[in-house]
């Protein structure tokens, strides 16, 4: 199995030979009987069903709970490649935190004319409540997911920054556990960096961001919207793995100026809340008064410096795709360095000339809503019908500031296991980053998402994609 030449094949060279990163894996693969591999493939799906590794899909007529497809062929990244990526990721995350602080304080980057004021003035994710406030430890984005795509041997691009509530880390961990259970001999044969200690590192990183009022070991809780949320499995999984309490808004209340959770022995103060509830639902006294998912008064406690909320309210500004288009300027402004990881070329429809270019070339571009996520609200021009393209044209003309456009990238491919054998499919990568006051910790690997349909460039699980284990090789 080799690529068709149009895309970078991560397993094979152009002449069909196996790249060094995959050499040990390929030798092992060809030693296996096909019947055994097929049985293992079926076992993996059964395991995921038993474990309950599912996600919810909203607005669908069919069953709302779905299994995330898992592919048992790992994605392999060399130690050298990973070192280059981590340097770029760390630089970007450092800049994102500095940007968040500046945006809610002196706004030097706007005064310097490096980004336009309209990007946050008209942005619902920018919260006036955070102006002038410095979170405990000075950390805004405690957990970050940086989405990367690859187009060549040394060509990695940042596709998105997820600085609000990045999801998917539980699938990274379960993918690894499943692979180790099915193929322990592979892990004996190959030196692969571990990801299994992520929950411990997450707990340690969150505890390091606890406010100064905490006594003894900081108490950490995971705040979930509840069982009907699309990522509820992950909320419960991480709370369990960290040894933290999984709570809903009704389990929390403000007691004596602290946020406290209900226990069998009364209400116990909480120091850090890893929240998986959106800003708008966090505090009905500050944001959406109809919310029953958050905690009345939590923002007052937060601004008094008596609880840490991870990630900080207002970090959704950094998820905005219009802000993303200025990340090269943001990185350079706060680090004094050129970005080590480039952005994908991006056209801002809010700018007249760019909008004209986009409208003239819709059939060749990928168009995204600036606040969109999960593969929704986007146009992939080369695979869309003329009718769909014209519908998008009307949307862009009506609200140009709501869209950005990018070229259709030649995403790299990795093999997946099919009934006919190995077959190439397009992939992206979401490494997970933990930020504490004194360090940035990047888990060696991340979540590889894979488009399971031949030719598809959409890897999101909500759009029919799957996941696979990501192996970073040791030196």
Automatic annotation (TrEMBL):
Q: Which Pfam family, any one, appears in the UniProt record?
A: CP_ATPgrasp_2
Q: Which residues form the Circularly permuted ATP-grasp type domain?
A: 74-451
Report the InterPro entries cross-referenced here. Answer: ATP-dep_Glu-Cys_Ligase-2, CP_ATPgrasp_2, UCP005522
Q: What is this protein called?
A: Circularly permuted type 2 ATP-grasp protein
Q: Which organism is it from?
A: Erythrobacter mangrovi
Q: What is the lineage of its organism?
A: Bacteria, Pseudomonadati, Pseudomonadota, Alphaproteobacteria, Sphingomonadales
């Amino acid at each position: 199995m080799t690529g068709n030449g149009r895309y970078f094949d991560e397993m094979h060279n152009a002449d069909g030979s196996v790249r060094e990163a995959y050499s040990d894996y390929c030798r092992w693969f060809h030693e296996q009987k096909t019947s055994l591999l097929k049985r293992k493939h079926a076992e993996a799906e059964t395991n995921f069903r038993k474990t309950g590794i599912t996600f919810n899909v909203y607005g669908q007529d069919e069953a709302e709970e779905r299994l995330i497809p898992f592919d048992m062929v790992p994605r392999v990244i060399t130690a050298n490649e990973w070192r280059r990526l981590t340097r770029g990721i760390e630089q970007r995350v450092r800049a994102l935190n500095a940007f968040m602080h500046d945006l809610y304080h002196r706004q030097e980057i706007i005064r310097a004319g490096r980004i336009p004021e309209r990007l946050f003035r008209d942005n619902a994710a920018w919260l006036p409540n955070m102006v002038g406030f410095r979170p405990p430890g000075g950390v805004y984005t405690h957990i970050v997911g940086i989405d990367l795509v690859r187009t060549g041997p040394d060509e990695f691009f940042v596709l998105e920054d997820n600085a609000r509530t990045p999801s998917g880390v539980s699938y990274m961990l379960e993918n690894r556990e499943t692979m180790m259970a099915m193929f322990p001999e592979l892990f004996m044969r190959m030196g692969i960096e571990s990801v299994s200690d992520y929950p411990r590192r997450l707990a340690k990183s969150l505890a390091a961001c606890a406010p100064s009022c905490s006594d003894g070991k900081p108490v950490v809780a995971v705040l979930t919207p509840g069982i009907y949320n699309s990522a509820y499995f992950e909320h419960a999984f991480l709370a369990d793995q960290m040894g933290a309490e999984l709570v809903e808004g009704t389990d929390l209340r403000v007691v004596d100026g602290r946020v406290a959770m209900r226990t069998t022995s009364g209400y116990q103060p909480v120091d850090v809340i890893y929240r998986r509830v959106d800003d708008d639902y966090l505090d009905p006294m500050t944001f959406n008064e109809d919310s029953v998912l958050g905690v009345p008064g939590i923002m007052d406690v937060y601004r008094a410096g008596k609880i840490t909320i991870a990630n900080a309210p207002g970090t959704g500004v950094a998820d905005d795709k219009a802000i993303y288009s200025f990340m090269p300027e943001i990185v350079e402004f706060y680090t004094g360095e050129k970005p080590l990881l480039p952005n994908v070329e991006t056209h801002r429809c809010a700018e007249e000339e760019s909008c004209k270019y986009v409208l003239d070339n819709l059939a060749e571009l990928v168009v995204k809503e600036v606040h969109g996520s999960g593969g929704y609200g986007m146009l992939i021009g080369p695979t869309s019908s003329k009718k769909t393209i014209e519908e998008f044209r009307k949307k862009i003309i009506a609200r140009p500031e709501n869209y950005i456009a990018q070229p259709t990238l030649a995403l790299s491919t990795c093999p997946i296991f099919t009934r006919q054998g190995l077959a190439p499919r397009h992939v992206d990568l979401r490494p997970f980053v933990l930020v504490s006051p004194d360090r940035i910790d990047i888990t060696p690997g991340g979540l590889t998402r894979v488009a399971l349909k031949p030719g598809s460039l959409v890897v999101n699980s909500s759009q029919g994609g799957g996941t696979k284990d990501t192996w970073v090789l040791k030196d």
